[in-house]
Amino acid sequence: MVRIRASKVIMAPIGEVWKIISDPKKIAEIDPYVNSVRIIEQRENIILIEVESEYKGSIAKVIQRLYLFPPRRMETEIVRIEKGFTISGVGGKSIILLEEIPMGTRIHYEEDILQGWRKILYMLHLVSRNKLQDLAEKFLDAIKERAERKSS
Q1: For residue range 62-76, what is the model confidence (pLDDT) as tens digits?
Q2: Would you say the pTM of this structure is higher than 0.70?
């Protein structure tokens, strides 16, 4: 397994950042590879969603479970792959942590890439570890841009 980590400082209150990351409908707005998100089921702080994404012409449709721990932590887990493949693979997990700091909010992102999927992706020459890191950074940049725009 490979773990990808990224962190950013966002000049916005933690509440504004939480509103962005905890709303599944906003995923398509902040992740350039996500085409659509559909909420399948929501029970309190657990949300089951269907995410359709596209990367280098390959379309994937996955079922993810989001675990919300307001207002500081969100975890995601890939439950099932309906179509195509995903970088994380079934069981792949990510964690987003928010930390209140004097300048606003620090956001931390971690994603576990299952080793078997990573080998397949390397063989297909689709994704390298550096590219995975770059994707994580871009994801946080999009959250940062949206949160700072809302709070200014």
Answers
A1: 999 999 999 999 999
A2: yes
